Amino acid sequence: MKLNHIPLILSGLSLIALTSCKKSLVELNTNPNNSPTAQPDYLLTGAIKTTADSYWGTDNNMNSSLLFVQHWAKIQYTDPDRYIYTNNDFQSLWSSGYAKSIINLNGIIKLADAQATPNYKGVALVLRSWVFTLLTDAYGDIPYKSAAHIEEDLTPAYDPQKDVYYALLDDLKAAQTSLDPSGKAILGDVIYNNNIASWKKFANSLRLRIALRIADREPEKAKQTIAEIQAEGSGYISTNTETAQLVYLASPNQNPISNLFDTRDDYRISKTIVDQLFALNDPRLPIFSAKTKDATPQTYVGIPNGLLVGDASNLGFTKTSKPGTYFTAPTAPAVIISYAEVLFDRAEAAARGFTNEDAADLYNKAVTASLNQYGITDAPTISSYLAQATVKYDATNFRKSIGNQKWIALFGQGLEAFAEWRRLDYPQLQPAVAGVLSGKLPVRFIYPGTEQAINGASYREAVARQGADVLTTKLWFDVN
């Protein structure tokens, strides 16, 4: 009888040993210095840096939107400047937006709810709304309703652009409710150094931006949104020191533009904007553009967009201007929303009759704020600039006045400049010299190729609703 129990005893000992072994392996593979729960401050810093890098980096800024709006041009490898792309070229904004930024921001929102830290939730909602705005401005219809569980849904449906903008306005209203300057403090904020009052202004400024995005389609909704912002009372970004931006550090955390110019020499400033700055005697020219390496009659020489490779290189690497050192410096900021932009937006809202503010006064203040942003503070210089007939505000055509000056003020902010140029239709740009779009300019990004392969049904439904997945298909907000 005793012998009959031995196998059972041995089996029990084996089970205990196996369990102990598994426990030991788990303990062995657990870093005692790491928290088992993600910390919201680390997630916040990471989400800001990841999004800013994508927004200000090569694929979505330098090699696409900055070329489309003719702030920059290419002197080597000119295919993108001629609008020659594959759908893989537009993967970056989508993949980083969903797989990195939104997932991290969703994580912050969940932690904030679990830990009763509403200020983290409010900040995350503002940033997530910005990310979704970048995505829908670029592609059009995008997955939004699945945002809360995007990491679990491999085939999310695309929401119409109108629905996305409306949902973002709701999210930003919710963010305002969560944000409380007297509430529990946050950490990890590398935009406003944990100043919640500034985040409330950022939220309202982003709401204003989106309200104007929809203004040509849904003017009553836009007007209602602006009235709600005014009633809420936190105000907008109101000085250059409150501009929403990420100020980069030295290498390896330098500005993506600086990082690229350390090793490559592909880009020059566009002739389009150089010519315009010369025509206006604009004091921002030596800031936006570097002097040519070799002496030239004009000192600042832009190149036409969309030249063939040989034609571009024949202009001379040392006889054409790179973007100015302000933008290629390691610590150059990635601007999200500037004070100047907010003033232009308020001027437009007034011009449309959405507010009782003075459109012309706000326009002059916007131009002044942009000049001040780049260190131009001399009063006679500013007054002389504003007094020019080609700069004075034209109440009969606010789109032209605001569109032309806003295009200059948004220099370097490719994605935002691209959205505003499509919406306001100024300046009236000419297509690339050797462009391949039959005399047209791009008006959107095409969807990433991975969406066709992985999420084909949703992709096809969006294309059927929105129009062909090509660079020349206008998005819902782009009316004119």
UniProtKB/TrEMBL annotation:
PROSITE patterns: PROKAR_LIPOPROTEIN. It comes from the Bacteria. It holds the Pfam family SusD-like_2. Gene3D superfamilies: 1.25.40.390. The lineage of its organism: Bacteria, Pseudomonadati, Bacteroidota, Sphingobacteriia, Sphingobacteriales. Keywords: Lipoprotein. This is SusD/RagB family nutrient-binding outer membrane lipoprotein. It comes from Mucilaginibacter gynuensis. The keyword Lipoprotein applies.
